[in-house]
């Protein structure tokens, strides 16, 4: 399970980190309150702030970091059942360019998102002063979750390890997925602060926490597993492929 914290090392601000998080830096958009920028009702009323922000996230502006490649390595080793991400930056998609058809990513792939960004589909045409607005295929606050989210019902009981990285576990129903693995299954949190069940008295005996920067945490785990060289090689090869893809070769 992942959140905005896995992309801050790529330079993309998260929501809630004090000072650097988006919620502390939205003054320019003149919003009634910070969350409005991701609310469907507000988007219908005024989509401009969302589009201004999402232009920032346009593919090519940011690159995947070691945490994304770690997920790729898990997949390569046949150890990844599925990645559940809350992120809209598309960096997970960017690392799967070579394996689009095979990666069990909890999203849908289409030729148009091959550059890694969210798909822009004609979900709903909203009539705003006579102008049709195309809504990106991401889930806003206040929208129904897509059907593929509910794969968790069969995925989570099958898991024998749950890794949670870079999320405040504040947003439901995503946050509650952490409780959907079997009680005997170890849960590893790699995050700057204690969140969700890890911060509560109902944490489980097999819970493990690597507090601090997510890249350092993942590097530590990878070192203990003896995978450092393999991850380095994967990153070098993939980064080369990504840059030549973005350059249009
Ligand atoms: P959040 O609520 O902002 O929480 C981020 C968590 O990650 C916090 O606990 C931080 O302490 C932690 N964190 C941040 N940077 C690091 C770091 N370098 N090392 C370790 N821990 C770190 O974000 P969530 O994802 O939990 O909230 C869900 C929202 C955020 C979803 O609706 C997303 O769409 C939305 N979001 C996505 C992006 C993106 O796509 N990159 C950016 C900002 C917000």
UniProtKB/TrEMBL annotation:
User: What highest taxon heads this organism's lineage?
Assistant: Eukaryota
The record's GO CC annotations read: nucleus
Q: Which PROSITE patterns match?
A: SIRTUIN
What InterPro entries does its record include? DHS-like_NAD/FAD-binding_dom, NAD-dep_sirtuin_deacylases, Sirtuin, Sirtuin_cat_small_dom_sf, Ssirtuin_cat_dom
* Limits of the Deacetylase sirtuin-type domain: 1-228
List the molecular function annotations (GO) for this entry.
histone deacetylase activity, NAD-dependent; NAD+ binding
Protein name in UniProt: Sirtuin 3
Organism of provenance: Hippocampus comes
């Amino acid at each position: 399970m992942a959140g905005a914290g896995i992309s801050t090392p790529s330079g993309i601000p998260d929501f809630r980190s004090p000072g650097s998080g988006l919620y502390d830096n939205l003054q320019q958009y003149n919003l009634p309150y910070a969350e409005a920028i991701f609310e469907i009702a507000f988007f219908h009323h005024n989509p401009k702030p969302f589009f201004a922000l999402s232009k920032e996230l346009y593919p090519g502006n940011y690159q995947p970091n070691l945490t994304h490649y770690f997920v790729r390595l898990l997949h390569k080793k046949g150890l990844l059942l599925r990645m559940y991400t809350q992120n809209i930056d598309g960096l997970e998609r960017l690392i799967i360019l070579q394996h689009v058809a095979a990666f069990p990513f909890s999203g849908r792939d289409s030729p148009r998102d091959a550059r890694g960004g969210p798909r822009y589909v004609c979900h709903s045409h909203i009539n705003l002063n006579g102008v049709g607005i195309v809504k990106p295929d991401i889930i806003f606050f206040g929208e129904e979750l897509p059907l593929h989210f509910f794969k968790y019902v069969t995925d989570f009981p099958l898991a024998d390890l749950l890794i949670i990285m870079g999320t405040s576990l504040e947003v439901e129903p995503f946050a509650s997925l952490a409780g959907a693995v079997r009680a005997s299954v170890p849960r590893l949190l790699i995050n700057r602060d204690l969140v969700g069940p890890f911060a509560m008295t109902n944490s489980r005996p097999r819970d493990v926490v690597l507090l601090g920067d997510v890249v350092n945490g993942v590097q530590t785990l990878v070192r203990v597993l003896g995978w450092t060289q393999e991850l380095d090689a994967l990153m070098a090869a993939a980064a080369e492929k990504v840059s030549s893809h973005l350059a249009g070769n």
